[in-house]
Sequence to fold (375 residues):
Amino acid sequence: MPSETTATGPLPGQRRVLLAVTGLTPQVITETLYALMREGPHALPHEVHVLTTAEGAERARLALLSEQPGWFHRFMADFQLPPIAFNLEHIHVLRGAHGQPLADIRSAEDNERAADDIADWVRRFTADVPGQLHVSLAGGRKTMGFFAGYALSLWGRDDDRLTHVLVSDPFESSWEFFYPTPYERIIETRGGKLADCMQAEVTLADIPFVRLRHGLPQPLLQGRAGFAQAIQAAQRKLGPARLLLDLQSGQVEAAGQRFELPPAELAFLAWFARRALAGLAGVERPSSAEPSQAHAQAYLAEYRRILGPMGDDGRAATRYRHGMSQADFDERKSKLKRALLEALGPAAQPYLVIGEGRAPMRYRLSLPAEGLGFA
Fold:
């Protein structure tokens, strides 16, 4: 569910998290915080979390959270900012293929495990509604940044943000630079040159990303898949819509999922699917004055295919003995829609029976014939 926003970001009181992927340059944290501070109080996070390697975690501890130099604490004091939660518990070391702290990404197994770790953290923070997750890609290996950005594309909400911090020359590659200080501070930069931190410029480049969260299956949103599995699930969701009906098992395959439908709803769907495959025009809704015998016969034919030769269709036959009424038609269509939405969420849209045209409106399956099939 998208969080509410104002013109400048999430509403006050909502949880804002800065999640940074870092390697050997922990100063990207203070640089990013400085750029956010310049945007205004609404942009500052309530807490900071870091995803990094074992060596990156040690560097972040020594550079940012130590008593000296303690650059995070100095930054907060220099600009008299409201509290931001950031301590050793907020530095998360990625784990390798065997669960060991990851010193670097050196194997395919470590790469896969790091991807799963990064994806899981992004999923966890985006499960906190309402709020905003801000992912910074400024530090760490390129693969780590790729995983973080792709994970935000999968799980990111409307207000979530992806950025890269930019630092002006000659400060960008200097270990001594952490943010533009509000006072004169001279450091040594490349080539032994001196520069004043007050003169540095730090900005954030927002990175647009495609948000795929809406319409993804609940197991994916709830973290029941690793990074690679999540990508595969998203690909199935975003691929061409296909509908396969297995009347014998009572199951339907749609949007990469296989699920059961009650016989009454499955029969209604099968009726429209068979018409679409035959290239027939849409079906008129029965008039309020007279039930339709043709509608009832076509529907009951599918219902009996589902029940099989030994099935008992007595109740359905009795209900439709005078034809399918307008109320019957509306009920079947409504219950089918509800069942598909429960199974697929917003991804159910291509598989619904829709009405089109002016009165008398005609109803058809919105999926084209080439996307339909019977098992």
User: Anything to note?
Assistant: The domain at 5-234 is CATH 3.40.50.10770 (Rossmann fold). The chain is about 35% helix and 20% strand. The two ends are 36 Å apart (CA to CA).
